Amino acid sequence: MAPSAEFSERICPDALVSVVLPVFNEVAVLRELYRRLTETLSRLGCRYEIMFVNDGSSDGSRKILDSLADEDTRVRVLHFSRNFGHQAAVQAGLVHAGGDAVVVMDSDLQDDPKAIADFLVRWQQGYDVVYAVRTKRKEWWGKRWLFAGFYRLLNSISQTEIPTDAGNFGLVDRQVVRQIAALGDYERYYPGLRCWVGFRQTGVPVERLARHDGRPRVSLFGLFRLAQAAIFSFSTVPLKAFYGLAGLSLLAAIVVSTFVLYHRLFTGLAIPGWTSILIVASFFGALNALGIGILGEYVIRIYDQVRGRPLFLVAEKRNFADDEQGSGR
């Protein structure tokens, strides 16, 4: 995917493009990622900075990132004090990025740097948000099926329309960055927040590449937690579903009661015992447990929000004008 003629004519050489890359244990790919990024960005005729956010890596990534920062002043590095999670790393990058346009992408080479050219074309055409619509994912079929199901479920129940198959990879204008960074959500889902703020948005089909080593850094449990954050942050359907469950419970109670009373009053076949009582008690007990669990998910998020702890703590900065420690929401 090479820059188009239109892009070459319309690009502003004075524009500063920031590329934000959360990093967690990617020591094997960082230099190759840096090479591909600089090769692509250098061809685009704009100024750029590459911001790596080291999310508590323990595999030697810190040493590689510091080396890249020493070799190239356009490389900026934030080292977290510990692992705070991918979404916190994205937020830190947005807070510290200084570009007129900011590109957020993963560090495992599944997001193709060459797609940045198409993002910038759309940006020059006046779009404030340009997101990648992932195609031809290289994961095993079960994971592809889970991702597809999640995006469609989220879009069907969310109060904010979130594009299907659009993840973190994409470009946002400076004014959009300011709005997203200022949002006070503790439990963050960046693609959802990016849609929620509005502005002019468009999607670009981008082929999802394979991981460089085939080993995902985020487990299925971690992906499930992210899915929970997305659903509970952008939908109240799980709570409202209890209106339907209450109706179902009432219907079940009426059916069971009718069955028992019929045999008691007309057939004489009613067996004194515990069967109907046990069925009804178990049914309503399960519903109560489910309701408490869903309410608990929202209460946990309210508690975290009210507690007000920062999303991340920065232990060290490289190639910033101010190298003090910092934190962010």
Structure description:
This protein has 329 residues and is an alpha/beta fold. The chain has 2 domains: 5-218 and 311-328, Alpha-Beta Complex (Spore Coat Polysaccharide Biosynthesis Protein SpsA, Chain A), CATH 3.90.550; 237-307. 50% of the residues lie in helices and 18% in strands. The protein is built from 11 helices and 9 strands. The protein has a 9-stranded mixed sheet, sandwiched between helices. Helix 4 (86-96) crosses helix 7 and helix 10 runs antiparallel to helix 11 (275-307). The longest helix has 33 residues, at 275-307. The protein is elongated. The two termini are 36 Å apart.
Helix and strand topology:
Elements: H1 5-10, E1 16-23, H2 30-43, E2 47-54, H3 61-71, E3 75-80, H4 86-96, E4 101-104, H5 115-124, E5 129-135, H6 141-157, E6 166-173, H7 174-182, H8 190-196, E7 201-207, H9 220-234, H10 237-267, H11 275-307, E8 312-318, E9 326-328
Parallel strand pairs: 1-2, 1-4, 2-3, 5-7
Antiparallel strand pairs: 3-8, 4-6, 5-6, 8-9
